[in-house]
Amino acid sequence: MVATLAAIFGLTTLVFSAVLLWVGYFDLITVGVLVVIINIAQWLLSPYLVGWIYKVKEMSPTENPKVHQMVSDLSKKSGISTPKLTLSQIPLPNAFAYGSPLTGSRVAVTQGLLTKLDDGEVEAVIGHELGHLKHRDVQVMIVVSFLPALFYYIGYSLMLSGVFGGGEKKNSGGNNALIGIAFIAFSWVLTLFTLYLSRLREYYADRHSALIVENGAEKLSTGLVTIVEESKRTNKPDKDQKKSNSSFKALFISDPGRANVDSAELHANSAANKQDLLRETLAKQPTPVHKFAEVFSTHPNIIKRLRALQELSQNPLTY
Asked: Residue 155 and residue 178: Cα distance in Å, rounded?
């Protein structure tokens, strides 16, 4: 994960600085200051946006003492401060970790998660989210996810300036348009690095849950199966809600937008319950189409992810 992160920031800094200095739009100091300000602002304010999109409210200890105790106990095992527990009032079964210096660290569970999963599965999901907090994935992904968008909009602006303006240099309009196209293409490459980093952090968070929760790998496996199946049944929101569910999908333990695809990979006619479904899924192989689709996903292929958890179940981790 560190190597991927270094590649993302290294490529970003190199291309961003070199091209903008060559074009002459900004000097290096100005560009650096703008990037830092925008990233810090996004990091500080994003928890408020997340809270608004997903209808999050703080959960009082008296509201669900069992879940509060899970968060407290697992935080101690994780070696981190206990985050605030919040409830997202959406029917999709899911969970996510988020926060900033203004709000502190938070773990949100959805109403659907508490309704559809058993206590052991909820505990394993919370362990996964605490893994994100321990690894500082929240801060890393918020910053990194901004970079492809930054390059895209700069490229788009350069293309417009190339089409509708010329600049001081001769032929600068055509040059700017070409550079703009290059920027947009580079934003796509950077997006692939960002998605790969997102998938890696999911594996690490799964591993953390297996480490701190008793029989955590097995509980998280059946929990993921339940989340995928229930998300398929309930993921029929209106257009605005569907857009909201996609806004910060990298935060979720499972991407609700892929529920139909993941469910199709899990589906087995002979499975009587989720344990049978899990066993039959582990016997499958991801198809080339599924492997290719994973490249463009924030979350790992469900079969590969369940197999990784199965390996952890057979070879338990210890501190």
From this structure: 9
* Residues belonging to the chain: 319
Dump pLDDT digits (tens) for 108-125: 999 999 999 999 999 999
Residues 117-126 as b or e (16 or more Cβ within 10 Å = b):
beebbbbbbb
Which structure tokens are listed for 251?
């935060």
Contacts of 27 (CB under 8 A, 6+ apart): 21
What SS3 state is found at 171?
coil
Residue 91 and residue 112: Cα distance in Å, rounded?
4
Q: Choose the catalytic residue: 121, 123, 129, 218.
A: 129
CA dihedral 267, 213, 106, 93 (to 10 degrees): 20
Q: How confident is the model at residue 252 (pLDDT cuts 50, 70, 90)?
A: confident
Structure tokens at 262: 């993941």
265 is a catalytic site residue: no
